[in-house]
Amino acid sequence: MRMHKGVTLFECLIYLALFSCIATASVAIIARLWQSRMRAAAIEQSHLTLYSAFDALAREMQSAPSLRTQWKCIMPTTLIWPIKDSKRNDRCWTMHNKALFRIEGSYATASGQWKKKHGSTIAPITELHFDCAGAERITHVTVLLSDGITTLQETIALHNRIIHAQ
Fold this sequence. Notes:
Distance between the termini: 79 Å
Order of helices and strands: HEEEEEEEEE
Number of helices: 1
Helix content: 25-40%
Strand order of the largest sheet: 1-2-3-4-5
Largest sheet: 5 strands, antiparallel
Strand content: 35-45%
Low-confidence stretches: 162-166
Number of strands: 9
């Protein structure tokens, strides 16, 4: 029969080992939860950035001409069209330095050069592709944007100026 109060060294080591295991498991669970939350936040930010960029592009394309001959440049990664009610200004959306880039200025179709321009970076992207449908009139433009995390493919209708999601 034991007469003294307290715990033995062996009991103390058992409790210490038990609490160490519980603390280690708790830290591991918290670390996994934190990593998954950061991953989800990165995906959410990616969606927000790409959809905001697409909305800005779609809003500007609503003023683009429908006739293919009125456009200054139609390429898979570059679109240039004259700004409505402006004789000297053109608008361009392209990929430059791994970013979606918007340019406004005076574009010379014959030389393929900008006479004067100013541009702004809209969103960081890794892939851009434009696909214009329609022979004489461009009926819609399918836009593919990717930033390495999220890929967004949407269609902008030009015949009646309605945006369709795919």
